[in-house]
Amino acid sequence: MALQTGDKIPEILGINQNGKEIKASDYRGKKLVLYFYPKDNTSGCTAEACSFRDHYADLRKMGYEVVGVSVDNEKSHLKFIEKQQLPFDLIADLAKDLVNKFGVWGEKSMYGKTYMGTFRTTFLINEQGVIEHVFLPKEIKTATHAGQILRR
């Protein structure tokens, strides 16, 4: 069963770009933007990450930390962070544990082909680690997503 509004997030979130384990308790007392995206260095994912980068100070003023999650590996995440100068962690969910727990992994289709992938989804999590809001794929505007959160 996928996590939803009102649910507490799991303690172990995964491994970041530097091989460090990221835990929910690392963010206790802070709000968290946990965003799931399909792939490093693709146009939509880059636009979304840069939106968070460009509004990172504003998000932090509102008490938010930002963490991105994709099924790309640590090396890919490091390159993405360096190329786009991202000031936040990216979790490498190679085993697909987190995407499955949050219910954002499933069958997608493009150009008539079906494949398994990550649905672009953002979870806003409160200071106690409870999901307060979910932005579903059809709601997310990649280039202005940070603004969507700031205006909420």
Task: Tell me about this structure.
The protein is of the alpha+beta class. It has one domain: Glutaredoxin (3-Layer(aba) Sandwich). Helices cover 26% and strands 31% of the residues. It contains 5 helices and 9 strands, in the order βββααβαβαββββα. It has helices at residues 43-54, 56-61, 74-84, 97-101, 145-150; strands at 12-16, 21-23, 31-36, 64-70, 89-92, 105-110, 113-118, 121-125, 131-135. A 7-stranded mixed sheet has the order 2-1-5-4-3-8-9. The two termini are 27 Å apart.
Question: How do you describe this structure in short?
Answer:
The protein is of the alpha+beta class. The chain has five helices and nine strands; from the N terminus they run E-E-E-H-H-E-H-E-H-E-E-E-E-H. The chain has a seven-stranded mixed beta sheet. Strands 6-7 form a two-stranded antiparallel sheet.
Question: How do the SSEs run, as a string of H and E?
Answer: EEEHHEHEHEEEEH
Say what the CATH topology is. Glutaredoxin
Question: Number of helical runs?
Answer: 5
N→C terminal distance = 27 Å
Kindly report the average pLDDT value: 97
Radius of gyration: 14 Å
Low-confidence stretches: none
Total strands: the figure is 9
Main sheet properties: 7 strands, mixed
- State the helicity in percent bands: 25-40%
Assign the CATH superfamily: Glutaredoxin
Determine and state the CATH class. Answer: Alpha Beta
Strand order of the largest sheet: 2-1-5-4-3-8-9
Q: β content, as a range?
A: 25-35%
What class, by secondary structure content? Answer: alpha+beta
Question: How many domains?
Answer: 1
